[in-house]
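We emphasize that the prediction below concerns an isolated chain of 210 residues; any contacts that depend on oligomerization or on bound cofactors are therefore not represented. The input was used exactly as deposited, without trimming of termini.
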Amino acid sequence: MKQPFSYRKLFQYFLQGILVLAPITITVWAIAAAFSFIDGILPNIVHSIFPSLMEDKTGNIRRIPGVGFVLVILFVLFTGYISSSFIFGKVVDVFDQLLEKTPGIKFIYSTLKDFFEAFAGEKKKFTRNVLANVDDNDVWRVGFITQDDMAEFGLRGYIAVYVPMAYSVAGNVYIIPKERVRPITNIGATQTMKFAVSGGVTDVEEEHKK
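Result of the prediction step, given as a token string:
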């Protein structure tokens, strides 16, 4: 028997299509945008130095898709490799100290440096996932300890906890007593961050099994 036409059913199919296509489309778009940006770094730099060398007959920048991306990635890998050497490490330290003492540049450089080191390197900060009782009630927030001692702020026995916001790269820092923080031990920091940023919709048990 033929099913009667239903706008409600049609709308359900439309929503289901969005649920399937939206994550795939956004992921592909993000990867393509990142690839295009990185791939254009080298040609744009060379063009700014030697315009005639990089322009074709119509005045457009010559591009070979993928070459710029590969060279930039190789340069980053090479920089990471030689940065572990003693001599290059000393050069980086001198340059680092110079930027740290330069007025104006100091604030921008130190802020960006601390931000990137919080996610990677030896000074990663978002590794100690906790439940924070910010408001001194029965409501707990998912966060990460970023400072163990706030004595420099005149608050002994307090710690700094970063609480990420759902569906955002932003977050808030709370300074609370140590006793109002519980470590999360059954799942890792990555799963905790995904849970917080996704608004709590991520299945942490399933992620933990992976």
